[in-house]
C-alpha cells in the first residue's frame, strides 16, 4: 500500500510539474508573439491600408478593366491582412511551441551528458588515486591498466564529438563571419551617410533623378493600340497592320446622325442640312464631297430632273393611278425611295408614313457618311483628335441634335481621360497615404520624408517609362496604380523603424540614442528583409520579360522600376534625409539646452 501511495504521489507531482512547465512555455510563446506583433503590426497595417486605399481610388475610375483590377487587388490584400492575424499568427504560435519543446529537450540532453561526463571524470580520478596508492614495487596494478584503457576510449569519443561539432559549427562560423563583416560595413555605411559631403552627393543625384523623371513625365502621351493586347505573332496583328497601313490613312469613315431634322418641306431646314454637311467636308483632313454619301443631293437632282422632263414617267402614272399633281408632289420623297436606283437610301432615312396615302410622310431622322485621310491616322491618339473635331462640328448644330458614330469611339474616348485619371488617382493616393502615415508617426519630418519618397518614386516610374517609349494606356494605368501601392512599403518601413528606434517608451520626444546609432539599429533590423523582399520580387517578375506580350512586359518594367527606385530611396536617400533632419533637430535642442540663464547676484550693502 505504501508503495502504491508513493507512486501516486510521484505521478501527481510529475503532472503538476509538467502542467507548470506547459504554463511557463505558453507564457514564453505569448510573450514572443506579443513582441512580434508589436514590432511588425504597425508596419503591416501601414502597408495594407496604403495598398487598399490606392486600389480603392482606382476602383472609382470609369474604365471597367481598371475598376475590376483595382477591386480584385483591394479584396485580395484585405483577405491577406485578415489571414495574417487569424490564421498565420496562430500557426506560428503552434509551430513555435513545438520548436520550443525541441530546443528545451536538446538543452536537457546536453545538461545530462555534461553531468555524466563530470561523474565519469570524478570516478576515474578516484580510482586512479586508489590504484596508484596500492601499487607494488614488483609491477603495475591491473586497475591502472583499466584506467588507461578508459582514458583512451574517452579521448576517441571526444575526437568524434569534436569532428561532429566542427562539421555542425562550420555553418555557424560562416554566419558569424558574415555577420561580423556586415556589421562593419553597416557601421561604415551609416557613418558615411551621416557625412555632409556624402549627403550633398546624394542630394545632387536626387536632383538629377527628379529632373530626368520630370522631363519624361511631361513628355508622356496617351495612346491606345489594340495590337498590344495580342501576341506579336498572332494573325490579328497582321489584320490590324494591314488596316492601319492601307485603310485608315486614306479612308477613315464617320457616320453623322441627325436625330431632329425638322420639317422636310421647309427650304431653310434643308439649307441647314447642307451647311452641316459642308462643315464636315471643310475639315482639313476631309477627303471631299465625293466621299460623302448624303441622300438629299440625289433627291434634289431627282426632283429637278423630274420638273425639267415634260414627259416624265411619273406623269403617266399619275393619270393611271388617279393621283393629282399636288398629291404627287407631297409623295415625291416616297417616290424617290421607291425608284430602283435610289432604293438603297432607305437604309439612311427613317420615315413616319401616314395611314392616308395622300398625306405627306414625315422625316423622323437620317444619317450620312463622310471620310477623312492622313498618314497620322495610323496613331490612335490622332484619330481621337479627329473624332473631337467631328464632334465639335456636330455640337455647333444643337437644334438638329447631331451625333457622331465611329466604330472604335468607345476606345478612343479613353485616351483623353487617361492622363487626368492618372493624375487624380496619384494625388488622392498621396493624400490618403499621408493620413495613414499620420496615424502611426507624429513626427513631421518623418511624415514629409516618407511622402516625398513616395512622390519621387511615382514620378520616376512614369518618367522613366515614358523615356523608354511606353505610352499611357489602360495597361500602364493599371500597373501604375499598383506601383503607387507598392512604392509605399519601403519608405514607410524605413521611416517608421527609424522613428521608433532609439525613442524611449515613456516619452516619444526623448531620444536615448544619437542619429548614427538610430540609423544603425534601423538598418540592422530592416535592411536585410527589404533587400530580400526586393530581390525576390525582381526574380518573380523577371519571368514576365520572356513573354512576348505588351501587357506582361509593361507590368514587369513597372514593378522592376518600383523595386529598384524603392530600394535606392529606402537604403540611400531616406537614411540621408533622416540623418540630416535629425541632426539639425538635435543641434537645435543642444543649443536650447546650452543657453545659460542669467544669474542675479545680490550685493549686500
Characteristic terms for this protein:
single chain, 605 residues, mainly alpha, Multidrug efflux transporter AcrB transmembrane fold, four-stranded antiparallel β-sheet, 72% helix, elongated, disordered C terminus, glycoprotein, Acrflvin-R, coiled coil
Q: How is this structure best summarized?
A:
This is SSD domain-containing protein. This protein has 605 residues and is mainly alpha-helical. The protein is 72% helix and 4% strand.
Q: Beta fraction of the residues?
A: under 5%
- Average pLDDT figure: 76
- The total count of strands amounts to 4
Provide the low-confidence segments as ranges.
131-148, 316-326, 504-510, 590-605
Radius of gyration: 43 Å
CATH domain class of the domain at 197-229 and 415-586: Mainly Alpha
- Annotated CATH architecture of the domain at 197-229 and 415-586: Up-down Bundle
Q: SSE order in H/E notation?
A: HHHHHEHHHHHEEHEHHHHHHH
Largest sheet strand order? 2-3-1-4
Structural class: mainly alpha
CATH topology of the domain at 197-229 and 415-586: Multidrug efflux transporter AcrB transmembrane fold
Most strands sheet: 4 strands, antiparallel
Transmembrane segments: 36-59, 71-97, 193-218, 423-441, 448-469, 475-499, 519-547, 559-579
Main location: membrane
Subcellular location: Cell membrane
Family: Belongs to the patched family.
